[in-house]
């Protein structure tokens, strides 16, 4: 836990220090365990835990023995995963600059000469170890795989998601970072309700079978919040029970799918009367619904209240200008 708190200090922003502190205090450190996602023979996706609740991802071309990593905060665990799978890391895709998503970039560049490390153009100046920035709609190809970059600003100004098209009999995959979570979305740290609405709307147009690989294991809390909004929603209650069973067993709740998110994620259902009523809004005022929904979620837990208070305080003091 101590190393999780100390390693960002002096290298990143005051916001990253806050996130590191709250990660250490909110839950125990994640086990050093990786999970292989069932799939085809041409490529494999491995979920790699980090810190208290982060997920990193390794996508391996099994014939070429090359790999792409997403949000590698813990370089050591990514290196171990590469060694276990007999793969050479050729690229890193970083969804945003926060230290708990980019903290391993520099070490990986040292370990793998010629490594490509990409991030959204808007976050490029603030992200360690990057070799280039990407723009909305840009398609990049590494390890024989194509990834489309989708701008998803709000959590950070330059946040991007990466969409891997369908192949090898597998459904498409979305690596959504802190924009879209299972049953939730990221805090509006550098954006507005309109930006988050637009970002999520862009992701909602992806094929329903698209698997969603997000940046954190927040599913149980997110579904508890969703259930508090709609206590009579049987689907939400059922998925909450399923998520609790998985977490008790130490199994990730990712991936979900875009189709599932459209069914149970309140941030993708802001036009529905039941969601608007839960936050005392006019269902025709979607932006106000989004804003109130996020504020309610921000203060749903004790840790959330502490983080919200800290963010409000740093904002009043002007400290968030360092982001």
From TrEMBL:
Keyword Hydrolase in record: yes
One Gene Ontology term of the molecular function aspect: metal ion binding
UniProt key word Metal-binding: yes
Residues covered by the Metallo-beta-lactamase domain: 53-216
Assigned keywords, A-Z: Hydrolase, Metal-binding, Zinc
Record GO biological process: methylglyoxal catabolic process to D-lactate via S-lactoyl-glutathione
Cofactor dependency: Zn(2+)
Highest rank taxon of the organism: Eukaryota
PANTHER family documented for this protein: BETA LACTAMASE DOMAIN (PTHR11935), HYDROXYACYLGLUTATHIONE HYDROLASE 2, CHLOROPLASTIC-RELATED (PTHR11935:SF7)
Family assignment from sequence similarity: Belongs to the metallo-beta-lactamase superfamily. Glyoxalase II family.
Official protein name in the record: Metallo-beta-lactamase domain-containing protein
Organism: Noctiluca scintillans
């Amino acid at each position: 836990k101590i190393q999780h708190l100390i390693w960002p200090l002096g290298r990143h922003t005051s916001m990253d220090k806050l996130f590191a502190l709250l990660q250490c205090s909110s839950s125990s450190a994640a086990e050093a365990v990786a999970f292989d996602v069932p799939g085809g023979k041409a490529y494999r996706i491995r979920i790699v835990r980090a810190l208290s609740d982060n997920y990193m991802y390794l996508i391996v071309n099994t014939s070429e023995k090359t790999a792409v990593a997403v949000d590698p905060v813990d370089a050591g665990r990514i290196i171990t995963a590469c060694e276990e799978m007999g793969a050479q890391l050729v690229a890193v895709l970083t969804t945003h600059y926060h230290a708990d998503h980019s903290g391993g970039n520099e070490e990986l560049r040292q370990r793998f000469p010629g490594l490509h490390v990409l991030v959204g153009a808007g976050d490029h100046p603030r992200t360690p170890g990057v070799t280039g920035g990407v723009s909305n709609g840009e398609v990049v190809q590494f390890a024989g795989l194509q990834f489309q970059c989708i701008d998803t600003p709000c959590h950070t100004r330059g946040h991007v998601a990466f969409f891997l098209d369908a192949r090898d009999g597998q459904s498409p995959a979305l690596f959504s970072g802190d924009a879209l979570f299972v049953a939730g979305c990221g805090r509006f740290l550098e954006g507005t309700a309109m930006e988050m609405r637009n970002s999520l709307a862009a992701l909602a147009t992806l094929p329903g079978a698209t698997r969603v690989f997000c940046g954190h294991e927040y599913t149980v809390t997110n579904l508890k919040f969703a259930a508090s909004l709609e206590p009579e929603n049987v689907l939400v209650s059922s998925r909450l029970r399923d998520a609790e069973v998985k977490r008790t067993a130490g199994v990730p709740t990712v991936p979900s799918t875009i189709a599932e998110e459209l069914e149970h994620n309140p941030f993708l259902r802001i036009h529905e009367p039941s969601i608007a009523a839960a936050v005392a809004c006019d269902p025709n005022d979607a932006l106000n619904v989004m804003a109130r929904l996020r504020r309610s979620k921000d203060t749903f837990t004790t840790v959330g209240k502490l983080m919200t208070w800290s963010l409000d305080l740093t904002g009043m003091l002007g400290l968030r200008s360092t982001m």
